[in-house]
Design brief:
- The complex is a heterodimer of chains A (about 575) and B (about 160).
- Chain A is an alpha+beta fold.
- Among the domains of chain A are: about 170 residues, Nucleotidyltransferase, domain 5; about 70 residues, Actin, Chain A, domain 4, CATH 3.90.640.10; about 140 residues, Substrate Binding Domain Of DNAk, Chain A, domain 1.
- In chain A, β27 and β28 form a beta hairpin.
- In chain A, α4 packs across α5.
- Chain A is globular.
- Chain A starts with a helix and ends in a 5-residue tail after the last strand.
- By secondary structure, chain B is mainly alpha-helical.
- Chain B has a domain of about 100 residues: Orthogonal Bundle (Helix Hairpins).
- In chain B, about 60% of the residues lie in helices and about 5% in strands.
- Chain B contains eight helices and two strands, in the order αββααααααα.
- A two-stranded antiparallel sheet of chain B has the order 1-2.
- In chain B, α4 runs antiparallel to α6 and α7 packs antiparallel against α8.
- Classes of the chains: A alpha+beta (about 575), B mainly alpha (about 160).
- Chains A and B meet through α1, β12, β19, β24 and β27 of A and α1, α4, α5 and α6 of B.
- Chain A: This is Heat shock 70 kDa protein 8.
- Chain A: Keywords: ATP-binding, Nucleotide-binding, Stress response.
- Chain A: Belongs to the heat shock protein 70 family.
- Chain A: It holds the Pfam family HSP70.
């Protein structure tokens, strides 16, 4: 019903533009929001260019500092002192915090941060606040992200001398659709239209595909298929993907992600240095100390990548002095679980991509800050003996790929064929519904090529059950509650019938822009026409507090509106 | 087409809605026992196209010979994907139709690039060809054969 209003409003808006022909498409910028640092790049017509701020920086610390009335971010301002990061006024790690509920282990681990992260452990959004002049000022990860994006946008506008409205952003593989919706909201708040939210490995794959494509043209080679393993580990997330590319067309064979990152390594090290400290309930003065420890530990971890041991000397106030030497062996021992998980992810991915011989892989591409850690490199070398691919800058890979996608999604063409690229994407997570009481029934499986559509038929479990509750979840876990609630709705008006007779068809559709829609229709075997109108629901419909919601639904309704799948003899 | 929620968020904010092609909605909800319900959203033209595509073999969809090698299947898939993928095609054509075509292309590729599935498909295909030949010779209505083919293609 609102459609005409949109047409009128936007029609008048664009009539001016249409007169000035030919309308050259506005190239969307590519943005890589990292847990620790971010960057922006654009296709400038012939090449990818990283945008720099007035100080000439191309990488910006991902934080927003609340002070006085106007918040400032790592884009425009530089911290006068590293300690400012530990004062509690600066909010960072928003990429890790966004779209999570207070039962999430990531949120619990974030209680060691210098700003306030409060949890009630009931599955609602955690309370967050920055310490400004000894006052806790509340904020949200989305708000912080929006302020940060606004500054990135302003920086790009200064650089490009034109308004910037469209963007492609990279996101971790493990992000849920709810988290994507939060990122989209932050972009909307910053006045950016999101053309695509791209899993980071896909962005890297696109860049790799372009390089391979150029090599082929230069060497006039046959353009044979190249298979690459992409390992991307930053401060907040670890993604692995196996891709195949030839002739500019890239297929994602398998993709896996986790919330494993430098932050976990950092926390393990802080526990090692201050074993008696309870990091999850900190007093205000303790927060500052921990903040200082955080900065010093981070520095030590960086040094351990190039030297075999590091000395930490830190005054924590009240006469407490920390003085310790840590060698690489100890570092690797403390973080052995993190490294084991990296290895597991890679092996899982190889298995899913059906790579039988490791020799079938032509390139291994390491991306992200943590890929610099010797142990991480050794793990991969144990699996893949040949040298790593060197044609891609580990910190610029994602943003460069996003800039390429920005040009493609804006409909930009390159006369020299540099943009003759297509990345066929996959759904990183499975999507399904709750059935059989508390079971997760995936309908679209993870690593399914999109656009995708799949339908499953369900039926009622009670006699004369005239309603069914469709609860949509996303995730790769077998246990329902470990996955993420995306939304729910009720199908009513099912004609009275014995259990197992009405057929409820649930169809999931993911289009090429990764929009998920759920279609539900009821069919009675003896009726030609459906007894009730079909339902079409775009997901996620949920607006936060999804943990609490999932629990309330199962507590209130139990299995009274439940469904089971109809076995189809194939 | 009354609900705005059918549009993608990006389509609402940016371009003129009038210029945006109607979003494609799955035409049918199909059930195993041949019950077919039309949601009534798609155009007759689109439906006709789908029907015509359904009758072709998976090899025809990829534009290859039935003895094509694995490598040929891969490169044919890429070649056709470059034309049909909604990301590429949306610049020239309406998005909905190519989404359907691409999904069909991908399904064909998924079957033929897996040796086991391909072998199974080849068996059904030759069986179907024989039946079609038989049907053509006899006086059975052709419709019957068509419907069956459609069924086998959907259930591979």
């Amino acid at each position: 019903m609102t459609e005409p209003a949109y047409t009128v409003a936007s029609d008048s808006e664009t009539t001016g533009e249409e007169k000035s022909s030919p309308p050259s498409p506005e190239v969307a910028i590519g943005i890589d929001i990292g847990t620790s640092q971010s960057s922006v790049a654009i296709w400038n017509g012939s090449d990818i260019e990283l945008l720099a701020n007035r100080q000439g920086q191309k990488f910006f610390r991902s934080y927003v500092k609340f002070k006085d009335e106007i918040p400032a971010s790592g884009v425009s301002s530089q911290l006068s002192h590293e300690d400012e990061m530990s004062s509690g006024a600066a909010i960072f790690n928003m990429k890790r915090l966004v779209g999570r509920v207070d039962t999430d282990p990531i949120i619990h681990a974030s209680k060691s941060l210098p700003f306030l992260v409060q949890t009630l452990d009931i599955g609602v959004r955690p309370f967050m606040a920055a310490l400004v002049d000894n006052v806790w000022r509340s904020t949200t990860p989305v708000e912080v992200l929006a302020i940060f994006l606004l500054e990135l946008k302003a920086m790009a506008e200064v650089h490009l001398r034109r308004p910037v409205r469209k963007a492609v952003l990279t996101i971790p593989v493990s992000f849920t659709r709810f988290q994507l919706s939060r990122v989209e909201r932050a972009c909307a708040m910053a006045g950016l239209q999101v053309l695509r939210l791209m899993p980071e490995p896909t962005a890297v794959a696109l860049l790799y595909a372009q390089q391979q494509q150029q090599n082929v043209t230069e060497n006039t080679g046959s353009g044979s298929e190249k298979v690459a393993l992409i390992f991307n580990m930053g401060a907040g997330f670890c993604d692995v993907a196996i891709i195949a590319t030839a002739g500019g067309v890239t297929q994602i064979k398998a993709m896996r992600g986790s919330t494993l990152g430098g932050e976990d390594i950092l926390l393990n090290m802080m526990h090692l240095l201050l074993p008696d400290m309870n990091f999850s309930s900190l007093e205000v003065d303790e927060r500052r100390k921990i903040g200082l420890l955080r900065v010093a530990t981070q520095d030590a971890i960086h040094k351990l990548s190039s030297q075999s041991s590091v000395q930490i000397d830190l005054a924590l106030g009240n006469g407490i002095k920390l003085c310790r030497t840590i060698d690489r062996e100890e570092f690797e021992e403390v973080n052995k679980e993190v490294f084991a998980e990296c290895e597991r992810l890679i092996k899982l991915c190889l298995l899913e991509a059906k790579i039988e011989e490791i020799e079938d892989i032509n390139s291994v591409i390491l991306v992200g800050g943590c890929s610099n850690i010797p142990k991480v490199q050794n793990i991969i070398k144990d699996i893949y003996v040949r040298d790593f691919y060197t044609g891609i800058h580990p910190l610029e890979a994602a943003v460069r790929g996003a800039a390429l996608e920005g040009a493609l999604a804006s409909g930009f063409n390159d006369p020299f064929g540099s943009l003759d690229l297509l990345a066929i994407q996959v759904t990183p997570q499975s999507i399904g519904i709750k059935a059989y009481g508390n079971k997760y029934v995936p309908i679209i499986l993870s690593n399914t090529t999109i656009p995708a559509r799949r339908e499953l038929v369900f039926t009622t479990i009670h006699e004369n059950q005239n309603e069914a509750l469709i609860v949509v979840f996303e995730g790769i876990e077998n246990t329902l509650t470990k996955n993420h609630l995306l939304g729910y709705f009720k199908v009513s008006g099912i004609p009275l019938a014995p259990k197992g007779i009405p057929k409820i068809s649930v169809c999931m559709d993911v289009n090429s822009s990764n929009i998920l829609r759920v279609f539900v229709g009821v069919v009675m075997p003896w009726e030609r026409n459906p007894p009730t109108p079909f339902m079409v629901v775009q997901m996620p419909t949920i607006d936060g507090e999804h943990g609490l919601c999932a629990e309330a639904l199962s507590k209130t309704y139990g299995d009274s509106f439940d469904l089971i799948a109809v076995k189809v003899g194939l | 087409m009354s609900s705005i929620s059918l549009f993608t968020p990006s389509e609402i904010t940016g371009r003129r809605i009038a210029a945006v092609p109607a979003p494609h909605i799955p035409t049918n909800v199909c059930f195993p026992h041949q019950l077919r319900i039309s949601a009534g959203y798609s155009t007759a033209d689109q439906r006709a196209k789908e029907t015509s595509l359904q009758t072709g073999s998976l090899y025809e969809i990829l534009g290859i010979q039935s003895n094509a090698s694995c490598q040929e299947i891969k490169s044919a898939y890429r070649k056709v994907a470059r034309l049909l993928h909604p990301d590429v095609a949306s610049n020239s054509k309406g998005g909905g139709a190519t989404t359907e075509e691409f999904m069909r292309l991908h399904a064909a590729y998924a079957t033929l690039s897996d040796p086991e599935k391909r072998a199974m498909y080849d068996v059904t295909l030759s069986r179907r060809r024989r039946r079609e030949a038989r049907l053509a010779a006899s006086s059975f209505p052709e419709v019957e054969g068509r419907r069956r083919t459609w069924e086998t293609e959907q259930c591979w």
